[in-house]
Amino acid sequence: MTKTEAMIMARAQRDLAETINRLAQDDPTWNRFLTRMPRYRYFYIKGCKDEFFWTTETVRHNGKPRYISGIYKYVKTRKTLKLTNERYHAKRQDAKARALKLKQEATS
After folding, report:
1. What's the structural domain count of the chain?
2. Based on the domain organization, do 18 and 66 belong to the same domain?
């Protein structure tokens, strides 16, 4: 690849990135498409379909990186999981500790 071809390729990539960013800012549908869910771990109770989870990657909440903990409750009528008791934490270990606490409260 020649220097001129490399410059053209770099410019095309930059223009494409700018177009995608502009679409994401203008249209919330594109924004949802470009973002991904953070990875998470969960505890569960044997015989129960609820998940007591915490994220292992941060998400942006009020402009700050945060970890999330909460419960995905099983909704029998819809056969889906619904997010409840959602909390944001500065440290991952705090999110994990809260998920474990929620699990222990549910078993007692």
Report:
1. 2
2. no
Structure pTM?
0.64
Nearest by Cα to 61 from 90, 22, 25: 90
- CB-based contact 68:54 (threshold 8 Å): yes
Same domain, 61 and 79: yes
Give the range of the structural domain holding residue 50, as residue numbers without chain letter: 40-107
> Tens digit of pLDDT per residue, the chain (108 long)?
687 877 777 778 887 777 767 766 666 665 555 667 788 898 988 888 888 999 998 888 888 899 999 999 988 888 888 888 899 999 999 999 999 999 999 988
